[in-house]
Amino acid sequence: MSSSSSALSSALARSGAKGDPAIRPPPSQSWRTFLTNHAEVIWAADLLVVQTLTFKTLYVLFFISHGRRQVVHFEVTAHPTAAWVWRQLIEATPWDRKPRHLIQDLPRETTSFYFYSADGPRPSGSCLTSCMDDEGLLENFSHLSPSAPTVLTHLEHDGGQVRVVLDGRAGRILWVRPLDADEPESSEPITVQPGDGVVPFTPLHSMSINTSPTVGDTTGFMLAIPLVEVRRDDAQRQIWIRTRRIGEPEPTSRVRAPWGYTVKLDAGALVVEIEWIDRMFPPDEDGYAPLTNTIWTWMNIGPAPDSDTLTRYLLAAARRLDAAHRQFQRVRERLDDFDPSAPGPHARLAVFEIVGDIETAVVALSRAIDMAAKLGTLVPISTSLPASVATEAVLLTELRNAYEHIEDRAQGQVRSKPDPQALTIFDWSSLFQDGAITYAGYSLRLSDVPGLILDTRTFLKNAAAAAKEAVALGATPSPTWATLD
For 234-323, where are the E strands, in sequence order? Predict the structure, then answer.
């Protein structure tokens, strides 16, 4: 006959007898005692509502360590979602940093609290970043554990033998992966002892976005983003991953996806940042990298509704800036190679080619900056044109107008009226003597051009990110400027 201690205590109470203290449940510690005993391993989380001066409502989520009252992580959003909160938890617990208990203050009328423990039972999907059950891994791959010392070189996979190499050891677990196609054979054998667990995995470095549904078709390739591991569920043979964020430390090894596991992404796990796109092509010696592909890729990954006008506008500005960079590079190269002592026809040909390149370069750069300056009238953005660019915009406009209406200047006219400054556009002496393009009292030094182009590029890239978000939130592109000569 069996009975619970609570049932027996109840029977004794009804009979008037005192229950045996030995079978009474032990008293539980108070909430204050719990906090005091575990302060060093407790984090608290809360979501605050903040009103801005413009009456906008923002939500602030933060995590604080009880032990030292240290803010571990915080983030602000205007649109909190469950996926956003979960992502903040992931961001707050990279690698091995985690609390034993995470608590959340609830309203007074709530009589319970939520916590995620690294020790006890965990709700499905609520495990912290590094809560991984290695025992589950060992059980799943127990058939690979030897009963005697052995040297491992190959594993059977998909009906064939795969050459494997040791990627790392963690306690009793040996992580092994297939030998890469261009990787030399390892001279050190993989020695496996009884009790060791061999876990073969597929290394995942990045996730690619492709417009083609055909595997292996690179013509539709758009972007690759590095990956990091979030958590693992060995019972269900599942692994969750997410994209790595710009500025986040680079992992020392690739994501380890054990063979036979399903790889999953939570909502919000795939985040595309324009900086990843911008890193696809290395910059030149002057720090400039082509911008047009960055803009095109950014605007076409998850395009915002009604963004065609904005996309065309940004692409046109980026193409002109890329063209201006190429032309000014060519001007610098030709000026470096220019030999004034060369025979007359050769020297004159070089001069005419340099001046021709400058004309097209100035026009392209001025038009790119003009479009950048007017972007804010097409769609509302918070990004401002750098002062270094704005101050040179007037100068470039004067030079551009002179070159685009060179037939007018050749007749000593500006806008079909005689002007004593018109012919100064044909004075090239300062270009070869001082490295400056001059006209009517204006002067643009070639040494200032690389910085001007880089500042314009940074603005257009940041403005593209802001403008796409603005259109996604409902702003409608509407040109309101007038075309000026």
Answer: 238-243, 255-258, 262-264
